[in-house]
Amino acid sequence: MARQRMMLRPQLATAAMLAAVVTTTSTGCFWGLVSQGPSLGIASIPIPISPYLQKEEEDKYWEAERYDRVPILGPIDDSGGPPVALDPPSDDEVIRALEKARPIEGGIPLLWERNRNDVRIVKEKIADYVDPVRVYPMIGPAQQHHAHYKCTVYYEDVRRVGWPVPHTIRDQDAREVLYIDHNHLHMVGNVDNAECLPPLN
């Protein structure tokens, strides 16, 4: 009797494994065993991603979409007055540039944390000029318009230390200076009729 039980144990374990595999794969969700249409196979199983990596990818896409492209505008109007640059950098662009230069994200809760409070941003244009006409590959004759901004960020720097002795350090007059360039191109010539200036010597 004992010998028969010993012989049945591997068979029971094999049967249990087979039952587990069948119940997992026969729900219609995996590998198309019971499917109503096309199947993705093993790619249909979701893979968890760290929130840090997800935020990093979202930030990269956000900056590439809004700040890393160079706009190409129409010709400069000769009606009078110097050409005016595009809008100054947004607060979001300034804070993202500050976070790249002096990162404070992260920290360990209840042990060491750092915050920027009462943030105030002052933007001033320090240069605005247009380069002479030159031919850019894949664009044609164009002028580059340069606009340089000095952005001063005033904030209260708060550091909370939780170990070994809990204390808070406040710097109410913290400031950082950032220089942000907003460059864009102006087409040259009659863009509507596709007539551009002749090549420069």
Q: Key terms for this structure?
A:
25% helix; alpha+beta; six-stranded mixed beta sheet; 201 residues; 6 strands; 3 helices; Lipoprotein
Can you summarize the main beta sheet? 6 strands, mixed
Secondary-structure class: alpha+beta
Task: Report the average pLDDT across residues.
Answer: 82
Low-confidence stretches: 194-201
Please report which band the strand proportion falls in: under 5%, 5-15%, 15-25%, 25-35%, 35-45% or over 45%.
25-35%
Helix content: 25-40%
Tell me the Rg in angstroms. 31 Å
Terminal CA distance reads 104 Å
Number of strands: 6
Q: What number of structural domains do the residues give?
A: 1
What letter string, H or E per element, gives the SSE order? HHEHEEEEE
Protein name: Lipoprotein
Organism: Botrimarina colliarenosi
Task: Report on the architecture of this protein.
Strands 1, 2, 3, 4, 5 and 6 form a six-stranded mixed β-sheet that branches. The N and C termini lie far apart (104 Å). The chain is of the alpha+beta class and 201 residues long. The protein is built from three helices and six strands. The protein is flat. The chain has one domain (52-201).
Q: Quick recap of the structure?
A:
This is Lipoprotein. The chain is α+β, with helices and mostly antiparallel strands and 201 residues long.
Q: Topology of this structure?
A:
Layout: H1 2-25, H2 51-66, E1 72-73, H3 91-101, E2 112-130, E3 134-136, E4 140-161, E5 167-181, E6 184-187
Parallel strand pairs: 1-6
Antiparallel strand pairs: 2-4, 3-4, 4-5, 4-6
